[in-house]
Amino acid sequence: MDRRSFLKWSGLATGAAMVEQAPGKPPPAQVVAPGGQVGVVTPNGATLPMKRSGKVKVGHLIAGEFEHEFAPGMRALAWGYNGRTPGPTIEVTEGDRVRFYVTNRLPEPTTVHWHGIILPNGMDGVAGLTQRPIPPGETYVYEFTLRHPGTFMYHPHFDEMTQMALGMMGMFIVHPKVPVGPRVDRDFVLMTHEWRLDVGARRPDPNEMTDFNVLTFNSKSFPATEPLLVGKGERVRIRLGNLSAMDHHPIHLHGLSFKLTATDGGYVPPSAQIPETTVLVPVGSTRVIEFVPDEPGDWAMHCHMTHHVMTQMGHDAPNMVGADTRKLDHRMSRVMPDFMTMGTLGMGGMGEMEMAMPPNSLPMRGGPGPFSYIDMGGMFTILKVRDDPDRADPQGWYAHPAGTVAGPASPQQMSADGIDVSDGNPER
Amino acid sequence: MGADRRVAGLVLLLGVVSPGCVSPSMQSDLARVRELTHLPLPQQMAEARDVSTGFPKEVGQLLQQPLTADAAVRIAFLNNRELRASLRDLGVARGQLLQAGVLPNPQVELELRQQEDPSLPFEPQTEIRVEYGLSQAVLSVVRARAARNELEAARYRTAAFVVELGYTVRAAFYAFQAAQQRVAIATQALDAFAAARDASQALFEAGNVPELDVATQDAAYESARATVAQLELEVLERREPLQRLLGLHGEATAWTVTETLPRMAGEEPSFENLERRAVTASLELAETQRRLEGAAQRAGLTRVEGWLPEVSVGVIAERKSPVAPAHGEWEWGGVLHFTVPLFDRRQGTRSAYEAEFDALMERYQGMAIDVRSAAREARNRVQSTALRARQYQQVLLPARQRVMRQTLLQYNAMQLGIFQVLQVRREQLDAELTYVELLREYWTAHAALEALLAGRRTGASMGGPMGAGGPSSLAGGTEAGGH
Ligand SMILES: [Cu+2]
């Protein structure tokens, strides 16, 4: 039992969860459910405040349009709930009776579907099938009892192609009455999503079917993704939800292996929890993984589809790799002095080039790292494993003990180990 | 000698009524032409020049600098042989005027006769008769007036030639300048084609594109090169008419012109009362008017001639032989000579003159109609070319520039490749090519309107360089090679 266990999960703790998190600084984990279950943290996001009304927990979701920043330099008009995308994470406990008021401030009707939750049919939020769509300007109310714990999602079921493409979605966490499995110290939710934002445009394109160019965790693109700060030896849970239009995301973590403990269908029995370093999160699914890191450091966590860690990559540029463009460069200086040949040495350096860009665009952009520029973007974040996570600076970098960082090989060491690079082929 | 004094007096009298002095100087013709055209015609035009010697000093000086349209016109005024010839042609009309005013010569008759009495020794009887055609002397005044109208008509003709020359030089100048500018733009476009070719070659050598892309870009470059060669020929073709108009030969043919056509004028000339202004200014109408007056005067003269008896007055002095009795003194007498205009009343000549007058009058009316129509035509051309050129200058070219800038931004963002950037650049240059052609049309139309208001219809042709078949596009389309 650590000090967190002494905090009561009711009263004070619930009140704290109702306060929306300040961006940038994750709040310390707090017990919110029986058995010392800590509250979920939504990096770059918030938890929905719930009021108690008699025996019912009441929440209010307002669907509407707002300007969203994917990362500094890339803003666009998005749709979401309570002015954010993803909408605030709903966090309740098994057995709770909940009532959600949904106000529609969109230009078209909407509904809310409680993805994965088993509830009365008329509360399922499928426009036309189980309810009338909520007209613009009106407020509908949903009420049901949560009979099963798990990791769920919510999203519209009216013109979902448009509404989800523009950012309408959120996570829905139901803690069990009796904790399942070992108690966790940290509980994160990350919602993966994909968008089409044309370079220079101001609104994501819902008509795109295949060619997505902004890939996000909680609707943020690296370097704007908040790192996940955890303690060495702590048990960490990450709940992943995928409401992308078309793509499954193989989410890969460095520095540890984890086990898949649950899906939106329920808990995986311990005997079936196989160790992994990559978990595929299919479209319309949630996956819950748990692990205990024992190697401190700054560990990459990202989708392993290479295009999903590239922001706004174009496909119309010819393959310039390896081209000798000296003659061309000379010619181009006459035709167009502002022109600069790119990509002949590969594209790794693109993000660092300071070139004039169209507004709202971060093509090929990554972010700063402690050693050099990190040339990945999009669906990328950092798992920061620290000895004392509550006192560590979430923005700070890991201080490596001496002699634990890869560096240039010295000729002495190479020759001592019989490494010869003169012909470049170690097999010969 | 009273008789001598009397003869002298008659001559003097006739002299007073004669048409007066005609300045033989070409300077006065030039001054008059200058006055009619409102153009600063150089004084040197009236100076005699040896054909074999070089150019006026001023021409040499003007040729040192890249020429402007104004400088080209100035050179043409100084150096165009046809213009100098037409100034000299005025001498013909001037000579005719001089002749028309000249008084008829007196007739002198000297008669020697044998004495009536043959017994007397030979001592001839003398008779001197001086006769002067009075009516011809009076008519010469009218004749000179008709001739003066002819001279004035000739001066109007020369003035019209000067205005037309000015216009022709400007039109030729703009055509050459535009051709030169078009080649410069086309050469840049060619560079863009070459860059695309170089790019596809580099990509092919790196193993990134199939040979098809190289071949496609190569073919596009080569056909662009053929187009540029055609435009280069056009520059040479446009140079020679100007060369001829400026009367240049030998070393003086190495002139250059300012590189770009001037931008459009801030505002169009006023079209108010344009038709009336054109009619008022028309040098050909004025010329015809003079010719009409001349014809009227000649017809009137013929009418007078028809009724006026041919009158001549004379003095007779006779002296009988001094040996004859009571003789040997001069005897004086007068003589009056006239014809009776009974049959030949110059009817034929008169009706010929009257017919000529009527025909001329018809032409005059038709000409006035044409001048009004030409005024409307000139206005339409200026307005239309101004509208189109201004649309390019103020809207289309900036829009193309924006496309170029945004394309480069999209390229920087790796959304587009070099081939698309080059295609957009070629389209931008293509718009500039069209703009230059529009600007040429605009300035040519402008010069035509100015010439019209200076008194000369020019029949400005709007035809583009090289006729309709000239190359107007270099943008090409080489979609392959980009992917
Ligand atoms: Cu992915």
From TrEMBL, chain A:
Organism per entry: Stigmatella ashevillensis
Region (Disordered) location: 390-428
Record flagged with keyword Oxidoreductase: yes
Listed name of the protein: Copper oxidase
InterPro entries, sorted: Cu-oxidase-like_N (IPR011707), Cu-oxidase_C (IPR011706), Cu-oxidase_fam (IPR045087), Cupredoxin (IPR008972)
Keyword Lyase tagged: no
Keywords: Copper, Metal-binding, Oxidoreductase
Top-level taxon of the source organism: Bacteria
Domain spans labelled Plastocyanin-like: 70-177, 201-315
TrEMBL record, chain B:
Residue ranges, annotated region (Disordered): 463-483
Pfam family of the protein (one): OEP
Signal peptide: none
Coiled-coil intervals, chain numbering: none
InterPro entries reported for this sequence: MdtP/NodT-like, OMP_efflux
Similarity field: Belongs to the outer membrane factor (OMF) (TC 1.B.17) family.
Protein's name in the database: TolC family protein
Source organism (scientific name): Stigmatella ashevillensis
